[in-house]
Every structure is written in C-alpha cells, then in structure tokens.
Design a protein that fits this description.
This protein is of the alpha/beta class and 106 residues long. It contains three helices and four strands; from the N terminus they run ββαβαβα. It has a single domain (3-105), classed as 2-Layer Sandwich (Transcription Regulator spoIIAA), CATH 3.30.750.24.
Length: 106
C-alpha cells in the first residue's frame, strides 16, 4: 500500500508514495485519520515519494492537520517531492505546510 507507517522513538512517521489524488483520497482518508489515535504529540509526514497530487490530496492533508490539532498533536512535513512543493507554493500554503528539517526543528 502506498501509505506506510513507522515508529521511531515514539514518533509516528507516515510515508505517502505514488499518486495522492481524488482517486486515492477516499481510500487513504480512513487510514490516515486512524493513525491519529497513535500516542504522542507529533505526526511526521514524508511526502518525498508522491508523484502526483491534486486538490483532493491537498484537502486531505488539510483535514489531517485540523484533526491532528483536535487530537492535541502537531503534524509536520519532513520532506516533500517537487510535485507537492509546487502545489503548495502555487496555492501559497507554505505557512500551513512548512518543510520541517526534523523533530529538533519542531
């Protein structure tokens, strides 16, 4: 599955790879939201392997961010593919999805 999880020292990392479009958003939504039940205050996303993203994928990222806050968690993007960076820059959402250099910069 193109969404994989790993836990390192209590930090939950989710990696999304391949396409992240309207065709996958419905499939990924429940899985991604369920990951918010993991204990810990930080959720780290790795979007470096995303090959395609549209507004539905971006909308799911916004939903994840909102729901993470509702669960008293912080969601950060550890890395983004050029496709994701371009979408975020085009829509001027850098303030919402800043690129984190790592947990120490959070």
């Amino acid at each position: 599955m193109p969404v994989t999880q790993s836990i390192h020292e209590g930090l939950l990392r989710l990696q999304i790879s391949g396409s992240f479009t309207i065709f996958q958003a419905r499939e990924y939504k429940a899985q991604l939201l369920n990951e918010l039940e993991h204990p810990g205050e930080l959720l780290e996303l790795d979007l470096s392997e995303v090959e395609e993203i549209d507004t539905a994928g971006l909308q799911l990222l916004l939903l994840m961010r909102r729901e993470a806050a509702a669960h008293h968690k912080r969601m950060v993007c550890k890395s983004m593919s050029p496709v994701v960076e371009n979408m975020i820059e085009m829509l001027q959402l850098q303030h919402i999805f800043p690129l984190s250099a790592g947990p120490e910069s959070v």
